[in-house]
Structures are given as C-alpha cells and as structure tokens.
Hints:
Layout: H1 6-18, E1 51-57, E2 61-63, E3 68-77, E4 82-85, E5 90-93, E6 100-103, E7 108-112, E8 119-123, E9 136-139, E10 151-152, E11 166-167, E12 177-185, E13 190-191, E14 195-196, E15 200-203, E16 210-217, E17 224-227, E18 230-239, E19 246-249, E20 253-263, E21 276-278, E22 295-305, H2 310-315, E23 323-325, E24 330-334, E25 337-339, E26 345-347, H3 355-360, E27 361-364, E28 367-369, E29 375-377, H4 384-390, E30 398-400, H5 404-407, E31 408-410, E32 418-421
Parallel strand pairs: 1-3, 2-4, 3-5, 3-6, 4-7, 5-8, 6-9, 7-12, 8-12, 9-15, 12-16, 15-17, 16-18, 17-19, 18-20, 19-21, 20-22, 21-23, 22-24, 22-25, 23-26, 24-27, 25-28, 26-29, 28-30
Antiparallel strand pairs: 10-11, 13-14, 31-32
Amino acid sequence: MKKNTLTTLILLLVLGNMFAQQEKGITGYDNWLDNWTDFKPNKANYEEPTQILSGDIDENTTLTKRNTYLLLGEVYVMNNATLTIEPGTIILGDFETNGSLTISKGSRIHAVGTATDPIIFTSSKSDKKAGDWGGIFMLGDAPINTFGNISSINYGLNPSSTENISYGGDKIDSDSGTLEFVRIEYAGKMTKSFGHYSGLTLAGVGLKTIINNVMVSYCQGNSFSVLGGNVDLTQTISFRSSRNDYYFNYGTQCSMSNALAVRSPYVSSADGSRCMFVKSYDIKENADATKKETYVHAENLTLVNVSNDLASDIQVGLVQEAIYVDTDVSFHIDKSVISGFKPAVYFAEKMAINSVNLDKIKFTNSYFNNCEGNIFRKGYTNNDDLESWYGSRAFNNVYSKGPDSETFINSTNTRYPDFRLKINKIIASNEVYEDD
C-alpha cells in the first residue's frame, strides 16, 4: 500500500506563497525599504562639517565618505563637470544661507550609494524641521513644451551665469547623471517671491538620467518636481511632504514604477497638496500646442494617507485627494494602491468628460481602499458617470474598506515599515491520508 500525504503538497503551496509577491502596489519578494531608508531622520546625529561646498564647481570633483560637507548657499556644478559622491557621504544643507545644489545643463552628478551605505542630504540644524534648506536641481536639455523649448528655474537664485539655471532642449536621451540609494531630508525652504523649493527638481532631464531608490522626507515643498524632459523614476519614496509628493508639468514624459507616497493629514499643506499633481502648463497660452502634453505612466504605486482617526480627519477637512489630474494631459496608473483619501482622484473642474479624455486617463487593475469617493470631477456633486465608467469590469479595479493593519504587511513599524499589500494566507493541514 502506498502512503500519500497532503502535507507535502500543502507545504509546497505554503512555500510558494512565502515567495510570492502581491501584484498591486509596491512589490518585491523582499521589503526594498529596508536598510537604506530612515522614517525618523530627526533622530540621526552626524559629525560636524569638515568641508564646505560653495559657489561654482567647474571641474570634476569627488566628495568622499570620510568628510562631512556643508552645502553653503547656492552651489552650481557647471562647465560640463561631473560631481561624484561616494557611498555613505553626508551633505548638510545650510539653514542660514539656504543651501542648494544645482546640476547645470551639460553637467552631471554621480551619487551612487548602496542599500547599506546611502548618500544623505539633510539639514545642518540639530533640531531638524521641514524647509530647513533649499533642495537639489538636476537640469538637462531634453524637450519641454514651452515656446522656444528653453526655460529656467527661478527661486530668487543668483548664479554667475543664467545658463546655470536654464533647462530644456531637443535631446530626449540626455544624461544629467545618477541618483541611487540617496536620501533628501528637510528640504523645501520657503522663498519670499517664488514659493517653496522642492526636495528634488528634475527639469528637462533625459532618458539616460537614472533616478533609482531615492527617498525625500519631510519636505516643505514638493518632494519630486518633474518639469518636462523624459525620465523614469524607480523605487522612489516621498514621506510626509507638506505639499505634493510627485508634481509633473511642462510636457514631461515620465514613467514611474514601484513608488511610494506616505502622507499625513497633520503635516499636509491646507491650501492643496496631493500624492500626484499632473498638469501640462501653468498658463495655456505659454504652452506650444505642437509639442507633447504631459504624459505619466505609473505602475505599482502605493499612495497611502496614514491617519490616527481617518473618519474624524475627513470630517474636519484634513484629508484631500490622492491624485489631481488637470486638463490636456495623458495619465495611466496601473496595478496600484490608493488608500485613505477624500476622494481618491479629482479631475479638473473644467475637464470635459468625453471619449477623448477618458481614452487618455486610465485607472486599471488598481486597489481603492478606505477612500470617501473614488474618481470625481472637482466641483461636481454627481460623479456617478465617472464612478460607473472606472468601476466597470473592463478596468479590473477593486474597491474595499479596510484598516491599514489588515491592508499592509507592517505599516506601523516606525523604523522599517512594509507597505506591500498582504497576501491571502494558505491554511496548512497536517492530516495524513492513505491511498489503497
């Protein structure tokens, strides 16, 4: 008599489940947030600065781990120079002089950390707060959709040459450098006339620019601002931004994958801030209609609003939408998670709901959780048409109401949270069956 058991089969199922990964939201067999991230950066203590970075860097320069650097005032990498930063290097943005780093068009930054030794840009203050210093600008010569195909960043900057703050051109595959395993903390200082800096501004950067495993935390402005250009964002994190986590404008052609935005209703700006803000222009008359409108393709995003009492925070007006989609853009989000917003998505009030726009704006295979309303048009009380359209089986979206503890693997871990979706457990049996 042959003795068979289901235990082996069930064990294989369990093991298969252990190594499976959830297809919606941020994904991976392991939690890629481990090691290199820091969700409590104010607890970190760094050595006093041993070197000062200031003025223009016009030749190839390397920053080494053995030094701690003070970013003093406006620093420009120019004249086609490359700034190389070793893994583990600490750069402190100066509070008093509003430290900022600009990689001018034609120059490059090579900041490649590791999962165990990330590169850190943070505040020079011992008691760190959002907006302590400026931020980082990477400028390239990829296309933008303004007339003349050239623009400039302007935060009251005073470069030695206006060329140092210009961006845009016709090189789709231009290379502004690499940021990999990099943290940017407490940036976004307010200017009197030009608003807040962003943590990381990518303006006119091209396809050869690499942005991979970059975390922006506690930024007083936008965490990531993508202005024109053609760029891919991979495994990026925005944590507790006061304004937008990801901001897109000026005809950018951007692909995002495996990205996370964690918002808090207690630090978000009251005058409008979202996980994603997608637009093609500020003033329509300044945009060249012959050029591409903004296009964002996003896969495996997790956009989550972490609240102590979501219902109460919604009631008192602390919770806003996760995504705002303006007119004249193309936007597709797939296999993503949107959790804890009111509503999940707003379309611009002036956007016509017609076949042209619905073909350009797609929400597919995504998981809407704990949102008061899903996809609405701003200013309209009746959004049944949009809810019905995106709720059809053709888009394969899922709608649920579940607490974070039941939705994510371990979202409450204050050091290394895990915002991957939970996978249904397989219950194993130890019963033995015999075959005759």
